[in-house]
Amino acid sequence: MAEPVVQTIELTKRYGAQVAVDRLTLEVSEGEVFGFLGPNGAGKTTTILMLLGLSEPSSGTARVCGLDPTRAPVPVKRLVGYLPENVGFYEDMTGYDNLQYVTRLNGVRDRDARPRIEGALETVGLAGERRKRVGAYSKGMRQRLGIAEVLVRQPRVVFLDEPTVGLDPDATQRMLELIRSLSRDQGMTVFLSSHLLDQVQRVSDRVGIMLAGRLVAAGPIDELARRSLGVDQARYTLEEIFMRYFRQEQPAAAPAGR
Amino acid sequence: MIAVRGLSAIYRKELEDHFSSTRFTLVLTVVLMVSLLMSWMTATSVRKELEGFAKPSLVFLVLFTSSGAMFSFAQFVAFFGPLIGLVLGFDAINRERALRTLPKLVSQPVHRDAVINGKFLAGLTTVGVLLTALVAMIAGLGLRVLGVVPGWEEIGRLALYLLVSAIYVGFWLGLAILGSVVFRGMATSALAVLALWIFLAFFVPVVASLAADALAPVPPTPTMEDIPVVLQNEQIKRAVSYVSPMTLYSDATAVLLDPMRKTTRSLVLLGPMERLSLTRFQNPLPLAQSALVAAPHLLLLVAGTFVVFALCYATFMRQEIRA
Prior knowledge:
The structure holds two protein chains of two kinds. Chain A is of the alpha/beta class. Chain A contains nine helices and nine strands. In chain A, α6 (169-184) links the parallel β6 (157-161) and β7 (189-194). In chain A, α3 (95-105) runs parallel beside α5 (139-153), α5 (139-153) runs parallel beside α6 and α8 (221-229) crosses α9 (238-249). The longest helix of chain A is centred in the C-terminal third of the chain and has 16 residues, at 169-184. Chain B is mainly α. In chain B, 76% of the residues lie in helices and 0% in strands. Chain B is built from 13 helices and no strands. In chain B, α9 runs antiparallel to α10 (227-241). Chain B is globular and about 65 Å long. The relative contact order of chain B is 0.12. The chains are: A alpha/beta, B mainly alpha. The A-B interface holds A 45, 49, 52, 54-55, 73-75, 77-78, 80, 82, 84-91, 101-102, 104-107, 149, 161 and B 1-3, 5-6, 9-10, 12-13, 96, 99-111, 320-323.
């Protein structure tokens, strides 16, 4: 059996007395889109930061493409792409120049970077806006430029943290299509963190549900539906499956009548 | 290899940002205007005084040390040099936070310290280029107005002066970057480092006098018996004033740029042998000897710059970076 691209064993992060991520154990296989679900503050971003080597785990282990991100952060970062929530850009620079800076940081020579940048801008539909300053981009265009930044790096694994937050329906649709194409056309493994369940349902092969720092369920959506509701997934949405787990784990916080 | 490329990419971008920024243009314009005006006034007054006389040796350095109508170029750099460092560094890190580019930057395949190293090196390079351009322009002005070609000794002294000035401004640049690491708000870090500059520039001499008067009070009309107290008072004043890098820099560069100065100490604190050598030997000191006299000050200045940068580095490396 192939080694998982992302693997965590008992991964834990504490901030003083508060446990942000509690003994997280999960695996993500090569080429799949893994939806990482949970409400705000569930520990999704903290998990991603640990997988990128940007935050040190309190205990447990993490491996990305077979490497430990805490011990070898630079080799791991060479293999992954990361789109943070509310991605930032250098506003005074053009879209093209922002991407060129990323390629330079990745050690790509300017002459080799040019076709990569052109291709990425074409893929995300920003080829016509390449010479416009990013300060003049709309929110949707900025998110697409963020995806272009991931594409120019040609990573094996992509971590997307709430990539559709604040986008209008049209921009959301385009973003979801882009995410799906990362796996389908580029062969990348996508680790998609979000609290927007219907969107995750549309693009994910498997999902993991995080509540208060703990992974309460993981697997294909139809399997989770059978496991939690005892019925076929076609009759239930991911939101209903999620709410079942939410009520089990946090009965006091769950809305009445669900 | 890729990590080194990352550092060079950050360095290159920061350098481009500095040279194309409005704030750099403004600083350059003000500094250029003031220093050229001062040097012009100094050069014309020196030319008038030397009319009909043979030009003395090392006259070229007078352009940088003579006060003229206002203050000398060396005094100007001692006073306003810190502002250049502060302007270049006060928003180095917190601007990245405000733009939300820091998480993205550190998620690239570069070591985290490449961010702080690249920013510091780019700032230092900008300072070096700025100061070298200024000294070269003043030297050109001197050539034109005085008609004196600088000798190797003077060029050597100017090169050393440039190096020390870059380290001095580097201290303030490090302090400004530290402010940008510690404070999230750009305005807060600007105000904090400005307050520190004001304290070290204006208040340390006052604090030094107060401390000296409190620990070794000198009577209003001192007699011969009060000489030890007067000396002690002066020593305390000097020791406290060395807290300010401005004092260290001013004393060191005064010796480097003026070969006739043979000590950094005031006449009150000179020992009997030093007094004797000053009265008996009137020749200028060679560059190596001047550097030796200034060495303790230079070492303290370099150490201070390293300490500030190390603080900045350690604080940045320990911070959690979140999106």
